[in-house]
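Researcher: Structure prediction, please.
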Amino acid sequence: MIDLRELEALEARWKEPGDSPLLPDAYGFQAFRIPDFLRLLAVAVMAVAPMRSFLDAGCGIGTKVLIARDMFGLDAAGIDVVPSYVEEAGRLGLGGMVALVDVREFGGYGEQDIVYCYGPFREPDAQAAFEKRLHAAMRPGSILIAVMPTLKPRGWECLFRVPWQGVWRKPTERG
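Model: Predicted structure follows.
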């Protein structure tokens, strides 16, 4: 059983103020509150069952991947560009589920049912470029959970939204 308080304490120890140690236009590890994440993921899962795959784009140490896998039964994975974060994810039992990949270069967004991202880029232009690429790559019917988005996904169905976070479904193609 997952101890959510233990995960929050772990995230707090890894939190880095300011910039990423490797990317000048990105934030360092930012821990999004676990109760808020649970609410957003529950909305996504309930909206479009049966969802199976989950990707945390910019997953840090992988706590959200662990929650998606162990609490929601999703085939969960994460990607991050910081080697020490990926190593810590391995220590959390996520070896092979969290990969060392830049979110801007990842080619598998279209394979995911749910993609979660906590605005990885500090620079608005970099964040907007990432979001445009993500929106275009995701398949129809998939779900985007975004925290601190720069762009609202145009034409997507809003399933839940509060300031600075939301859950959207990409429209299905009409033939």
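Model: The longest helix spans residues 34-47.
Researcher: Thanks, that helps.
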